[in-house]
Design brief:
The complex is a heterodimer of chains A (about 375) and B (about 350). Chain A is an alpha+beta fold and about 375 residues long. In chain A, about 65% of the residues lie in helices and about 5% in strands. In chain A, the strands form 3 sheets. Chain A has a 4-stranded antiparallel β-sheet with strand order 1-2-3-8. A two-stranded antiparallel sheet of chain A has the order 4-5. A two-stranded antiparallel ribbon of chain A has the order 6-7. In chain A, strand 1 (about 150) and strand 2 (about 155) form a beta hairpin. Chain B contains 14 helices and no strands. Chain B has a single domain (about 85-355), classed as MetI-like fold (Orthogonal Bundle), CATH 1.10.3720. Chain B has helices spanning about 15-20, 25-50, 75-85, 90-110, 120-135, 150-180, 185-200, 200-215, 225-250, 255-260, 265-280, 285-295, 310-315, 325-355. Chain B is flat, with a radius of gyration of 26 Å. With about 350 residues, chain B is an all-alpha fold. Helix content of chain B is about 70%, strand content about 0%. Classes of the chains: A alpha+beta (about 375), B mainly alpha (about 350). At the A-B interface, helix 2, helix 4, helix 5, helix 10 and helix 11 of A face helix 1, helix 2, helix 7, helix 8 and helix 13 of B.
Chain lengths: ~375, ~350
């Protein structure tokens, strides 16, 4: 017996077995207590509640949701809201971050100063405070009657930002999607097989012509091409309205995210070995060529891992939207828990949703990273 | 025979400097001028609003209109609410001293004298205990103030310090467990860390506040603040564990093997050989994580705690100061900025110092 305990192998086995047993015991006791507590409250377990109607409206959603919608549909709408604000944040923050990074690596001292000041201000203040700030500004704007107007097509009031929107029919949208798919396919083909570019340009031009024809003919005679917001009584009609909740969350996340993304991109640009840039110059490449063929590709590889972490972080940060009443996935789940009491099921859905979104982003960016990674020695 | 080229033109002097930094090309000149005008305009407006036209005292508050500058009177009137929350008025000196103790602890732990695995924990646990004792009271004639009455900046600092004190040992545990040579333990902790890292902090805090009471027997539930702090600490530990793991991996394998060959027990190998180097190598990332954690304490406002973000919102929540929201938010931003900017500058300084080989 003494010998058994002295044996390294047995000790390792005993520790691991003990760990597993304790973990299982904890889990079982959690489940048992949970079941008893939930049974005491008289709530049926299981996912049957997803088919029930919610009875509460959502103040913002991509798909149509009313008080008569089911829980499943409301949750789906919340997930779409999260993805809408999340992906728009990623796009705008990346563009702004790139501008900031370029400003900070330039030789112009004024631009460096502006970039550095921006980054330090927006990076060092919590994102939730920034979102509260923009929300307070947007909701304290004048009423629709006294809205700020820009050329009478864009209006800013305490009801939100009113923008003109193109009026596209379903067939227009399908054609646009087809053209987009064709364009992507073209790009992919042109990589694999050089020299097919011209033929594809022709295809794209014919798509454009077809689209223009449909635009002119395929609509009601008086319907305008663009719907412009217009003040009717106390509210605006036409165009699209970006509610203050959505706009404040988007602006807050973009300005905050851009400061981090800008720093990541700056780090990437600065990480490119000076010798490689000088080698390019020695070979007689122009500044543009050096940037296009040496600096940007190398910098992109260097920044991608940090960038994908930041993207996932920003996606998770959309949850602060609940603080100003933006119905994102978390907000919808938390209201559903209050209303239906199906705590465990909804919490599982909540965590599952975020794990799926974040793993997908991580998967896409990791795949890109694998594809573009320098082969052989670096 | 080739004749010698003339020496290059003089590359120094103020004009050359000016040209290189502001007017290198024609578009540089355009950017410089445009941004110079922009900077001037912004500075002029900000200084005018915040200082020149500002109203500072409550007795002048009827002058606070839309045309006037910043109405800092709101800070004079509501400052104590923002800083102390609902802490009893007569006892607020305790809250002040308690916060100062933690701030001194943070500053002391930035000094290399304290960088050892014995001094640092003693310093932090001591500072944290002093904070809690002062805030709670109940000894030496001090009135008891329960944690439900804590609020404002002191609650923010409490959450930050508690997360750090609980989270750091957890992070060491997580990192060592994930690197363990026992597959079951390494895999389980790897899974836990990855799941926690892929969830938003808010969902974890929400689960701790709302769901844990359903799952855990009442005897060990603790109060809501405790549960939320522990959940936050687990979240911090998951991120910090990955930082430490990177630090552990960066210490040469030979050192661990040499220590084992010398017959040092496991805990001594970890505490005397691996961890000191891991901490030292990852100090900049650790400080960065502390900075992020300090900013993220503001999230607990969503699940109903009265920390500085929430007390700021409360200060403008009633009609009296409802129009001074910009002033209050700027004040809050300044509070966060002082902490976060200070710490992150220190981290950046440390990073350059280490890169130069003084680390």
């Amino acid at each position: 017996m003494q010998q058994l305990f002295a044996s390294h192998k047995f000790r390792r086995f005993a520790i691991q077995a003990g760990f597993v047993i304790v973990a299982i015991l904890i889990l079982v006791s959690l489940v048992l207590t949970g079941q008893r507590n939930i049974a005491d409250q008289g709530i049926a377990t299981g996912f049957g509640f997803l088919e029930r109607t919610t009875g509460w409206p959502m103040n913002f959603s991509v798909i149509e949701v009313t008080g008569r919608s089911t829980y499943a549909r409301v949750l789906w709408a919340g997930l779409l809201n999260t993805m809408l604000v999340g992906f728009m944040t990623l796009i705008f923050a990346t563009v702004l971050g790139l501008l900031l990074a370029l400003m900070r690596v330039s030789t112009n001292t004024v631009m460096k100063l502006v970039g550095a000041t921006y980054v330090e201000i927006f990076r060092n203040v919590p994102v939730i405070l920034q979102v509260f700030f923009w929300y307070a500004i947007l909701t304290h704007l004048p009423s629709p009657r006294a809205a700020y107007a820009m050329n009478d097509v864009i209006f800013l009031s305490n009801r939100g930002l009113m923008l003109p929107a193109p009026m596209l029919s379903a067939s227009d949208l399908w054609l646009l999607a087809a053209a987009l798919a064709a364009g992507t396919f073209n790009l992919w083909r042109a990589r694999a097989k050089p020299g097919t570019g011209r033929r594809w340009a022709l295809v794209l031009v014919s798509y454009a012509v077809l689209f223009a024809l449909l635009l002119v003919t395929g609509r009601a005679p008086d319907a305008p091409l663009v719907s412009v917001p217009e003040l009717k009584g106390l509210r605006y009609v036409g165009g699209i309205t970006l509610k203050p909740e959505f706009t404040a969350l988007l602006v807050g996340l973009v300005l905050f995210g851009a400061s981090y993304i800008g720093e990541i991109m700056r780090g990437g640009l600065l990480s490119v070995d000076r010798g490689k840039l000088e080698a390019g110059r020695a070979l007689g490449l122009s500044t543009f060529q050096i940037n296009r063929f040496i600096r940007v590709p190398l910098a992109f590889r260097a920044m991608l891992p940090a960038l994908s972490n930041q993207y996932i972080w920003l996606m998770k940060a959309t949850t602060v939207g609940i603080a100003i009443g933006y119905p994102d996935y978390f907000a919808v789940v938390s209201t559903s828990i209050n209303q239906s009491g199906q705590t465990m099921e909804l919490l599982a859905l909540l965590m599952g949703g975020f794990i799926v979104i974040n793993y997908s982003i991580g998967f896409v960016l990791n795949t890109v990273n694998e594809r573009i990674k320098l082969k052989g020695r670096s | 025979m080739a004749h010698a080229l003339p020496p290059p033109a003089r590359q120094t002097g103020p004009l050359v400097w000016l040209r290189r930094h502001f007017f290198a090309t024609w578009y540089d000149a355009v950017f410089t001028l445009v941004f110079a005008v922009l900077i001037f305009w912004v500075l002029d407006n900000v200084i005018g609003w915040a200082f020149v036209d500002a109203i500072w005292r409550v007795e002048n508050r009827e002058m606070c209109t839309h045309d006037a500058g910043a109405c800092w009177a709101v800070i004079e009137s509501r400052g104590r609410l923002i800083l102390f929350g609902l802490y009893p008025y007569e006892e607020q000196w305790r809250s002040t001293i308690a916060c100062l103790v933690v701030i001194v602890t943070i500053i002391l732990s930035c000094l290399p004298v304290f960088w050892s695995l014995r001094r640092l924990p003693v310093l932090w646990i001591g500072g944290f205990a002093a904070f809690v004792l002062l805030m709670r009271g109940g000894f030496a004639g001090l009135e008891v103030v329960t944690s439900e009455q804590w609020g404002g900046l002191s609650l923010t600092i409490f959450i930050f310090a508690a997360v750090f004190v609980i989270g750091m040992p957890l992070a060491v545990l997580f990192a060592l467990a994930r690197r363990s040579s026992m597959p079951v333990i390494a895999k389980s902790f790897g899974l836990i860390i990855d799941i926690v890292r892929s969830l938003p902090l808010l969902t974890l805090l929400f689960a701790a506040a709302v769901v844990v009471p359903l799952l855990v027997p009442e005897a060990i539930q603790g109060n809501k603040l405790m549960r939320v702090v522990v959940a936050f600490a687990i979240f911090f530990a998951a991120y910090q564990a990955e930082i430490l793991r990177a630090g552990l991996q960066s210490t040469p394998q030979g050192q661990e093997e040499a220590a084992i060959a010398l017959g040092m027990p496991y805990w001594s190998v970890v505490a005397d050989v691996l961890l000191p180097q891991a901490f030292r190598n990852t100090l900049p990332s650790t400080i960065n994580q502390a900075v992020i954690t300090f900013k993220e304490t503001s999230i607990v406002t969503i699940i109903g705690f009265f920390e500085v973000m929430a007390s700021g919102n409360a200060a403008i929540g009633n009609g009296e100061w409802g129009n001074q929201y910009i002033e209050v938010y700027v004040f809050l931003a300044l509070i966060y900025f002082v902490f976060v900017f200070g710490l992150s500058r220190y981290g950046a300084w440390l990073e350059t110092r280490m890169r130069l080989g003084h680390g």
